[in-house]
Structure formats: C-alpha cells, structure tokens
C-alpha cells in the first residue's frame, strides 16, 4: 500500500518548486485548499481522476506520479 505521508510530502515539494501556495495549487486544480492540506499531511490521497491535472500542474507525467506512489508503498 502506498505511504500517503511520503506521497503528500513529494507533492508538497513539487508545489513549492513551482512557488505555489496550497491555496494557489487548490485553485488551479479546482479543489479545496483543505484537500491539498490533507494530501500534504498524509491524511488522504488525490482521487485517481485528478492525476492528469496534477501532472500538468507540476510538470510531471501521470506515469511518474504512479511510479512514485508505487515506490512509496
């Protein structure tokens, strides 16, 4: 099973690399900032349907997101 905390920390790092706040990232993904906060804290993971938008926002591929999620487990 993927480690939600590691994935959340990785996503937070990608967000910071792009100089985005949680609020800005949430707005660009059309979700609540609370959802982004939960990802960061490892309380939840993004819905699989969000992966293409997340990949575009962070400049990675969906394959990279999935590969990292598999490696974080």
How would you characterize this protein structure?
This protein has a single domain (4-71), classed as lambda repressor-like DNA-binding domains (434 Repressor (Amino-terminal Domain)). It has 73 residues and is an all-alpha fold. The mean pLDDT is 91. It has five helices and no strands. The protein has helices at 4-17, 22-29, 33-40, 51-58, 62-71. α2 crosses α3 (33-40).
Ordered list of secondary-structure elements with their pairings:
Blueprint: H1 4-17, H2 22-29, H3 33-40, H4 51-58, H5 62-71
Helical residue percent band: 55-70%
Shape call: globular
Task: Please give the count of helices.
Answer: 5
**Main sheet overview:** none
> How many domain modules?
1
Strand content: under 5%
The H-level CATH homologous superfamily, spelled out, is: lambda repressor-like DNA-binding domains
Evaluate the radius of gyration.
Answer: 11 Å
CATH architecture: Orthogonal Bundle
How many DSSP-defined strands?
0
**Low-pLDDT residue intervals, each spanning 5 or more residues:** none
CATH topology: 434 Repressor (Amino-terminal Domain)
Secondary-structure-based class equals mainly alpha
Highest CATH level, the class: Mainly Alpha
First-to-last CA distance:
5 Å
What is the element string, with H for helices and E for strands? HHHHH
Round the mean pLDDT to the nearest integer and report it. Answer: 91
